[in-house]
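Self-study notes.
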Amino acid sequence: MSTNSQSESKSTHSEARAAIYGLLGAIIGGLATFGGAYWTGHQAQSETQSTSQRSAYVIFGGAAQQYILNLVQLGDAIDHHNGESYKQIRTQLLAEWSPLYSDFITIRLISPTYIGDDALKLLQAITFYVPISPSSIDRHHLNSVITAGNDRTDRFESAAQAQLNS
């Protein structure tokens, strides 16, 4: 082989190597770009879900606390023989039930099962007992409902916080 022919062969091999390395670099760069875009999208979705869950947990927990506070006020109205106050608070409790249940459904839809189960136990604990009239109230039972509601609220909030921090 002549020197000119060897030089052309080396040049062709160098060009082929350069093309292969260029192609490999483009493939690696494309994969890195795709991986970065996927990771960024996944992080954004995860943050959005976490924000939605946090918001739902706060709304439900706040509504449950308000419902429990109204149960306490209901008991106070009974203790002070304030029939008008009793009627207002009872009406308020009944009006709060539907939004509270709606907030619970949101928790069930966007949360892990164990969080939804804790929310259900809380809902059942506090909405189980609303006496029809002041004379039908069982103060001991009402106090038990309030205590159970506070306990279930603490459990729900702890589980929700742990889930958000994981």
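Second protein, same conventions, sequence then structure:
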Amino acid sequence: MLGIEARSRTYMGLSLFLAAGHLFDLSLGIGLNHHIGWFNSITELYSRWDPTYIAQPFYMEITSLLSGIVMIPMTLLMAYGFRKQARWLITLVPLYTGFIVCNNICWYWNEYFCPIPPHSWAWLIFWSSPWWILPVYLCWKVCREPGANPAESTP
């Protein structure tokens, strides 16, 4: 069993991984993928199976931009909170989880009804699964950790 310090580093690393994924969303939302060669190569590779990701209709640009603007600061704050073992994570992590689940639902909704459907739903689900699983896992861990709820602490 991992100690508290090791667990907090693990959760911090998972939060930073989530932030890196949102960085791609932010870059697509502001159109940065057209200006950086290596980034354009990565998005073109992924978009072979998900053409909506590269086509970026206006509503998908807004979804990507909001994902980056809102979610990157939240995940970085979560990483800091996990490092410092902050009590306010009991509020932030469920809030982030709610945001990302709603964002994923909107993204899949747009993918399903988009004029350019993905070539492979399995590919789309595989690559987006960390942003479904990890937030729920972190939320569960924060809410289940002993002493995570400030109401349970003794004065």
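Instructor comment on the second fold: Residues 4-145 form one domain.
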